[in-house]
UniProtKB/TrEMBL annotation:
Protein name: alpha,alpha-trehalose-phosphate synthase (UDP-forming)
Species of provenance: Caenorhabditis japonica
Trehalose-6-phosphate phosphatase helical bundle domain segment(s): 901-1005
GO annotations of cellular component type: cytosol
Enzyme Commission identifier(s): 2.4.1.15
Sequence segments annotated as region (Disordered): 1-24, 96-125
Known role: Catalyzes the production of trehalose from glucose-6-phosphate and UDP-alpha-D-glucose in a 2 step process.
Domain of life: Eukaryota
Catalytic activity from the UniProt record: D-glucose 6-phosphate + UDP-alpha-D-glucose = alpha,alpha-trehalose 6-phosphate + UDP + H(+)
Gene Ontology molecular function terms on file: alpha,alpha-trehalose-phosphate synthase (UDP-forming) activity; trehalose-phosphatase activity
Residue stretches making up the Trehalose-6-phosphate phosphatase C-terminal domain: 1036-1304
Gene3D superfamilies: 1.20.58.1800, 3.30.70.3080, Glycogen Phosphorylase B (3.40.50.2000), HAD superfamily/HAD-like (3.40.50.1000)
Family matches, as InterPro entries: Glyco_trans_20, HAD-like_sf, HAD_sf, T6PP_C, T6PP_helical
Highest classification ranks of the organism: Eukaryota, Metazoa, Ecdysozoa, Nematoda, Chromadorea
Stretches with biased composition (Polar residues): 1-14
Length: 1342
């Protein structure tokens, strides 16, 4: 059930309850919102509230809550008096943590299970190391100290009680008692719920109490929500309250103010809250349904299937088919290995201002017109490119007042839904207009709003989707007229004198800040509900700075960008005087994936503020991409500079229109015809705003005629200042002062020779675009001189339309910063415009006017054409393309030359992160984001570009590697490059129309096979046939390196490819019950968990040959067959070997193969790389040193033993009973004992590639015998013979050998897809030609 359904039910139930509460003419008040075990309190003073009503403090409700708290305290035996305000309760937040039980296992001989290719080295000692995850420390429990019932406070004879202190005391006392789960805990829970009810009844007014509430609950918050949330829902349904919405908003407000994410605790307690709120199931259903329709259109499915799915009238049948994914297709056709059915990416644009203007005609109907303004001009081209794009905004229409008596539930557009009881009447009226006279005034208002819905639906059919966000009018006034334009607008323009003085009062600031948060919350939740996983959400401007943080708390995987259209130049005291607002905004901006600024100046200011005021941040700058990256609290944000531009073609087409040219000539003649010859027309157009520098411009214009009287009668300033925001006191006063100065100038300056000449022509009405462009063509000099501005597109429009004009431009305009950075104003390349450094300097400003007026036409034309050419290249399409392009963000691995060890390992680690994201998306059926492919391509290109002699990569030491300067090593990275190529091919495959055909990808893998695709295909089919014979497997045990993945040049670079992880995960999901990967590598530092890319839940990991096991953070255990003293000894040996490998002679062994690894029970040291490039004399020298270390520590040879293979040395700690070496067979025995997988019944699959895997096979054969199926990746005939003989001993004939890991993976993919097909074909028999599926038993009986 989605959130709308819950709200709708709540309101309907509440209305009926209200009707039933009138008995015998007396109103019966509903029971208390929260009850414990059905018990209720008297709620005669219970306050009803709208879910997002304006913050209001109802002292009656507060006093009632205090009285109820006192009753609870008395029942608990801890009544409150004023002395308790001074007491401080000790609250213990620690949880009981217990360590897993030790495992002890009887051991046999020392050589039991040791691979024969590991030769015993004669030593007498070996130290041990655990390599295990750190066991949690025991935390000693403290008894919470509760105060004794307090005595009377003599200092307070009148017994005056502070209600806030009562609530806080109740909170802490009840929490301590409830947490113990002892006597009276139910009463204590009731006390906590009373406090919560108070907070939710007045969420904005009680945010400080709610913050204390959450902080008191601490680590027990999830447990508390599990107990309380069902009662909150029951309250909403029973009494028509809105406490669920209030709870969500309260958590959001807390998270914003404290930079936390406590909302996720509610998700953890009640997972359905998130799904309901975001409408997840409905969106998934819609995408699957659309995908099925497209699929059937391509494949021309049978008429029976078409009749089921082709019509929305049969929703139950369609839901069954979509959700169960059962298709009527030809038997034997392959089922896809992965489900990648999803729609393409859309842009969800979110702004306060709409792209349209809506007005109600005198007839009462609504009219919608395309809007204007900078934001619309910038974004409209992007949005118009796809009709599926969505624009969310506030339409400026307050429908909530008219629908106040109706339900506040919303439909998919976000508009309020009327109560169902009257809905039928209204819709009937919409169809039959002759009934209009029968409607009540309220019903007529509803009908009018429904006509708005109709207008919007019509608009959406022919354009992108316009969805309104409905906001309470009082909240909107505080959000828009208050915080946004009364504080943020002047502050970010560095005009503190225009900040409203009401914000000097902290309480007023806090109240209006709550409204700002609430409106941002409404925008955020609307955007999250309307978006899908693959969409990009684009938030615009200072009104909605919190949306990124709020949306990330709702859904962390959303891709959200923010663009600030105004400057970011706050005054010095912004972070201190307005800390309530400034801190949360600064932190919230860091939650966006990417943030764009108009100028580098604004970005630098933001970075400096973050570094100075936000702790625990990491700031990096990439000069190649001109990108800052900031990490904070686990989130990463990219900061870029993107100067906004205009749609050049639109302006040029109008400017070249003959009618526009004629109109411009008329404008020029009408104005300058009254002036002397040689006069210049100065033209300026902007909003009537104090940030535009209009007052300073007029003062400079006045000084211009004082200083240069010869220009009297010649030059004219045509100023168009479109009036806005007259309701704001600071704007109204400023506009009146400007108009007064204009009158003064016109009275003061005149020309006797030209009596009709006026120095200033001031207009306050806006100009249509065609007329505006005509003015651009008529002007001689454009004047754009704001005090502070984001970009100011007027300057660009002027010179795009009229490249022969001159331009006076202030440094406050973003356009000036962009042009200056492009060297259009420098001593060397020339000054192509007239720059006003400080608009308050009337003398210099006047000089710029004179320089522009006296500039020659040739110079003016030359300079204007240069700027015009630059602007035509950098148009609006470039701006939007660059911002939307993911390549510039931190999410994409950027291309670079790899020269150092740290760079190489860091690059491979990042590919691991990208691959994990790919695997997660594929397994969940989520869309593949473009930056995945870009990252892998860039990583591959970086490595190829850095190689010499084919695949040889030479690297030098750096700080990250910890090696001394001068150290170099050469790797053959053939495997790393090959696996990246396969992953890139895999991304292409799963995004193609062929993704359903697993054989197509197997064919792709074959293109990388040395023997050719034909040989590869045949080998895969042979292996797949063996696999299919044993499916379904009860257990599956496999090695990793060499079996499921080729050997890499070094273990840290042995990152599991995405395609391999998907195949393994799907095989585990479809073809086996219990799956485990056994490896000799450790879990961590650097271990299997760091190079694996399969999500948790598919495989258990047995590291250190199965001595330590990991399923998930809550399920991990290890072998305990050695003593603590043995472990300490092994740790000392490990430290000495580390010191040994720091010597220049042996340093190379740290960086090849396994390097040095610390396992649970043994140590691995690389002996040789896979190419055999290390000289044998150096290997022998290392061998001697390792033997010496072991002998020195274990002179009797009873604790340690050393082995060597072709690639590794291993030092084992002997088991504490019979001195046996732990191997993979013992690892299986350990996991069987602890997890108890069923090996007595069902088939068992075992895969390996070398001698160390034979004990694993041996143990499985002992347990499952002939039910074992085994595939080995080896061309070694002697190893094949050993495997065959071992299987023969247990009468096992299910043996197969393949040449490389890719063949085994291809066989697993083939077997998985065809196994699904077989199951699907069997399931089809269970369906007959009707709307509902039959049960399998029914069909068999039939």
């Amino acid at each position: 059930m989605d959130g709308n359904d819950v709200n709708s039910n709540a309101n309907e139930t509440g209305v009926s309850a209200a009707k039933e509460s009138i008995e015998n003419g007396q109103k019966v008040v509903p029971d208390v919102v929260f009850t414990v075990n059905g018990k209720s309190e008297d709620t005669s003073t219970q306050v009803r509230m709208e879910p997002f009503d304006r913050p209001k403090v109802d002292e009656d409700a507060f006093q009632d809550a205090v009285k109820r708290c006192q009753k609870v305290l008395e029942k608990l035996g801890y009544p409150y008096t004023s002395v308790d305000a001074e007491k401080n309760l000790e609250i213990d937040e620690s949880d009981e943590l217990t360590e897993n039980e030790d495992h002890d296992n009887p051991m046999a001989t020392e050589d039991d299970g040791i691979p024969q290719n590991e030769r015993k080295v004669e030593t007498r000692k070996m130290d041990c190391t655990s390599g295990q995850l750190v066991a949690p420390k025991h935390i000693e429990k403290r008894e919470e100290v509760l105060p004794s019932p307090p005595n009377h406070d003599s200092s307070n004879p009148e017994g005056v009680i502070d209600p806030i202190q009562v609530v806080r005391y109740t909170l802490r006392t009840c929490y301590v008692i409830w947490k113990k789960r002892q006597k009276n805990s139910e009463i204590a829970l009731k006390g906590l719920m009373i406090v919560l009810e108070l907070c939710l009844s007045q969420p904005s007014a009680r945010d400080e109490i709610f913050a204390a509430f959450l902080e008191t609950l601490g680590y027990n918050t999830v447990t508390f929500w599990k107990s309380v949330v069902p009662q909150i829902y029951n309250s909403d349904l029973s009494f028509s309250t809105q406490y669920r919405e209030a709870l969500l908003f309260s958590l959001v407000l807390y998270d914003v103010n404290h930079s936390k994410n406590r909302l996720r605790e509610l998700y953890a307690a009640v997972p359905g809250v998130r799904q309901s709120m975001l409408g997840i199931r409905a969106k998934q259903f819609g995408e699957r349904y659309r995908h099925l329709q497209m699929k059937m259109a391509r494949s021309r499915a049978s008429s029976r299937m078409s009749s089921k799915v082709g019509s929305e009238e049969n929703l139950p049948s369609m839901a069954s088919i979509v959700n169960d994914t059962v298709f009527d297709e030809e038997p034997g056709q392959q089922v896809p290995l992965v489900d990648m059915s999803h729609d393409k990416q859309r842009v969800i644009n979110v702004s306060n201002a709409p792209p349209v203007s809506i007005s109600r005609k005198t007839s009462g109907s609504w009219e919608i017109k395309q809007g204007s303004g900078g934001l619309v001009a910038c974004v409209d081209p992007v949005m118009s490119a796809d009709k599926n794009n969505i624009w969310l905004s506030n339409l400026g229409v307050n429908m909530q007042e008219e629908l106040k008596e109706h339900s506040t539930s919303t439909n998919s557009l976000g508009l309020p839904l009327i109560k169902q009881a009257s809905a039928g009447e209204v819709f009937c009226v919409l169809e039959r207009n002759d009934k209009k006279k029968e409607l009540t005034p309220k019903e007529q208002a509803v009908e009018s709003d429904m006509s708005l819905l109709s207008v919007l639906n019509t608009y959406n059919k022919h354009s992108y989707q316009l969805n309104p966000v409905v906001v309470n009018q009082d909240d909107y006034n505080c959000y828009y007229g208050g915080i946004s334009n009364g504080l943020l607008w002047p502050a970010l323009h560095n005009l503190p004198q225009y900040i409203s003085s009401c914000y000097d009062d902290p309480e007023t600031l806090r109240e209006q800040w709550c409204s700002y948060v609430r409106v941002n919350y409404l925008f955020a939740i609307n955007a999250a509900r309307n978006s899908r996983a693959q969409d990009f959400i684009w938030i615009h401007d200072y009104h909605l700075m919190l949306c990124g943080q709020i949306m990330r708390s709702l859904e962390s995987s959303l891709d959200i960008g923010f663009f600030l259209h105004i400057p970011f130049q706050p005054p010095p005291n912004f972070m201190t005087k307005y800390k309530t607002v400034a801190d949360p905004i600064l932190r919230a901006l860091l939650r966006f994936t990417k943030v764009g600024f108009q100028t580098s100046r604004d970005r630098e200011t933001f970075v400096k503020l973050v570094a100075a005021n936000i702790k625990r941040t990491r700031v990096e700058y990439d000069s190649r991409l001109d990108r800052y990256t900031i990490e904070h609290d686990g989130w990463t944000c990219s900061l870029g500079v993107f100067p906004v531009s205009i749609k050049i073609s639109d302006f040029i087409s109008i400017a070249e229109n003959p009618q526009t040219i004629i109109e411009s000539t008329d404008i020029k003649n009408n104005i300058m015809g009254k002036s002397a010859e040689g006069g210049q027309l100065f033209f300026s157009v902007e909003r009537f705003d104090y940030t535009k520098g209009i007052m300073e411009k007029l003062r400079a214009w006045q000084r211009y005629f004082e200083k240069y009287p010869d220009r009297l009668g010649k030059d004219v300033l045509l100023q168009v200042a479109v009036t806005n925001r007259r309701s704001v006191d600071s704007y109204r006063q400023y506009q009146d002062d400007v108009l007064a100065l204009t009158d003064l100038i016109n009275k003061k300056y005149h020309s006797d020779e030209h009596p009709e000449w006026k120095p200033v022509i001031f207009e306050t009405d806006g100009l249509p675009r065609t007329k505006l462009i005509a003015h651009y063509l008529a002007m001689d000099i454009g004047v754009v001189t704001p005090s502070k501005d984001g970009m100011n597109l007027v300057a660009k429009e002027m010179l795009v339309c009229n490249p022969t004009a001159s331009l006076v431009l202030s440094t406050g305009a973003g356009t000036e910063v962009q042009l200056s950075n492009a060297n259009f104003y420098s001593e060397n390349t020339g000054k192509c415009y007239h720059r006003v450094e400080e608009i308050g300097d009337a003398e210099a400003f006047a000089d710029n006017f004179y320089a522009a007026a006296t500039e020659t036409k040739e110079s003016r034309k030359s300079h204007g054409e240069k700027i015009n050419e630059f602007l035509c290249v950098h148009d609006i399409d470039e701006w939007s393309d660059q911002f939307l392009d993911p390549k510039w963000t931190h999410e994409v691995i950027s291309q670079c030359e790899v020269k150092q060890l740290g760079q190489f390992y860091g690059l491979m680690s990042r590919t691991g992160q990208v691959r994990r994201q790919i695997v997660e998306c594929v397994l969940k059926g989520l869309p593949i984001r473009p930056h995945f492919g870009y990252s892998l391509e860039n990583a591959k290109n970086s490595l190829e570009m850095s190689c010499h002699d084919g695949t040889k990569l030479t690297l030098e030491a750096d700080e990250e590697s910890g090696e001394e300067k001068g150290f170099e090593i050469t790797y053959d990275i053939r495997d790393e490059l090959s696996e990246m190529e396969k992953d890139i091919a895999f991304l292409v495959f799963i995004q193609s129309d062929e993704y359903e055909n697993a054989e197509e990808f197997i064919k792709t893998l074959g293109s990388f096979y040395e023997g050719g695709p034909v040989v590869f295909k045949n080998e895969v089919k042979q292996a797949a046939e063996v696999l299919q014979q044993g499916i379904h497997y009860s257990t599956f045990f496999t090695d990793r390196d060499g079996t499921l993945k080729s050997y890499a040049c070094s273990y840290p670079t042995s990152v599991q490819p995405a395609y391999s992880a998907v195949i393994q995960a799907q095989f585990a999901r479809r073809c086996a019950t219990f799956c485990a990967i056994l490896t000799t590598a450790p879990l961590i530092h650097t271990g299997i968990l760091e190079v694996a890319t399969i999500p948790e839940g598919y495989y258990a990991y047995g590291a250190s040959a199965g001595r330590e096991w990991y399923l998930n953070p809550a399920q991990q255990f290890k072998d305990r067959s050695f003593s603590v003293n043995d472990l300490n000894l092994m740790n000392k040996v490990f430290e000495l070997i580390e010191e040994l490998l720091e010597k220049p002679e042996f340093r190379i062994f740290k960086w090849i193969g396994s390097g040095i690894q610390k396992h649970c029970g043994h140590i691995t040291i690389a002996r040789q790389d896979v190419r055999g490039s290390i000289p044998e004399r150096k290997v022998n020298r290392l061998h001697e040193q390792l033997v010496k270390i072991v002998n020195d520590f274990d002179k009797t040879g009873t604790i340690l033993t050393m082995r060597e293979s072709d690639l590794e040395f291993k030092i084992y700690v002997k088991a504490k009973l019979k001195g046996r070496i732990f191997n993979k067979g013992h690892g299986i025995r350990l996991v069987k004992e602890r997890l108890k997988p069923n090996m007595s019944k069902g088939n068992c699959l075992v895969c390996g590639d070398n001698e160390s895997d034979i004990p694993m096979l041996d143990e499985c054969l002992k347990l499952a015998g002939s039910r074992v199926y085994t595939l080995w990746v080896t061309a070694d005939l002697s190893l094949q013979e050993k495997v065959a003989k071992l299987c023969e001993r247990y009468s096992c004939t299910n043996i197969h050998f393949v040449s490389c890991p890719q063949v085994l993976l291809g066989a697993m993919a083939y077997a998985t897809a065809h196994t699904l097909t077989d199951e699907r074909n069997r399931n089809i028999d269970y369906y007959y030609d009707s709307d509902t599926p039959m049960e399998p038993e029914e069909s068999l009986d039939a």
